[in-house]
Amino acid sequence: MSVVVGVDVGGTKTHVRVARGEERLVDLVVPSTGWSAQPSGAAARWIAERVRAALGRCRPSLTVADVAHLTVGAHGCETPRQCVTLAEELRLLLDVSCTVVNDAQLLVPAAGLDEGIGLVAGTGSIAVGRHRETGAYLSAGGWGWVLGDDGSASALVREAARALFVRADVGATRDPLEPRLLASFGAENLVELASIMSWRGGVETWGQHAPVVFRALDAGSQVSRAVVTAGGGALAELVGNLVYRGAVGTTVVVAGGVVTQQQALRNALADALERRAPQTTLRMLDEDPVEGAVFLARRSVATGRAALAPTRSNAS
């Protein structure tokens, strides 16, 4: 049976799975520290190092020469050009047949479905689907933690801090979120919090503070409640936009650390989705997203065709 490798490169962690037929040979999970989809050459070397490490853990040890196909779901690969370029770099580097897609494209096949909308709400947020007529992949969101990614861990913290700053400007009473968020960032006051978030560590560190928002919600924070409700609404909006643009399927497969770990956000998403896209149903992914990469790799071996890359097509 053919050996295939699936890789899920997320914003926080990377999962490499080596499989032969239906047998899982090795799972390697490592932090995504240092990952960037650009430049493609450096990204390919980053992935190749982790693929080789996973193959080396097989018993007996395997090399890339044993791999029939490699499929990578890569956080930050948003366009066909990015996906194709990274795949070519990996082919040149590893001399192996390779497909690269956006990491959100792994969710629907990981759930064992042929069609549907994948929604990620973790370090960032993005929704992906496939056009019902052309088959082109569609995406909404995924614009980054500074300008977008609403509903993600990073954006929830961003919006929580902004809400506290607005309350301070109008002289509102202190919300239970304020002391908790200050303590989480090690800030003595809101002025220092603004400085830390702006200049120390960067936005890529914001997401780790998201649990504080939910703990404050449990303590009665109205700011946290408003932020979480808006975050769930933003995620539903991504799905609704894809439905409007012609995405096929009625199941929304959801994954990502913040949405899987926080019931309050899941509830807000479900409530908003009933209003924005009532024809859809939510399904929390109960399988590792990397299984979607393995599925696509197996399919590529069986059909001799690579998976389709995503596109920001405006087809409707």
Automatic annotation (TrEMBL):
Residues 5-297 form the ATPase BadF/BadG/BcrA/BcrD type domain. It comes from the Bacteria. InterPro entries: ATPase_BadF, ATPase_NBD, Euk-type_GlcNAc_Kinase. This is BadF/BadG/BcrA/BcrD ATPase family protein. It holds the Pfam family BcrAD_BadFG. Transmembrane segments: none annotated.
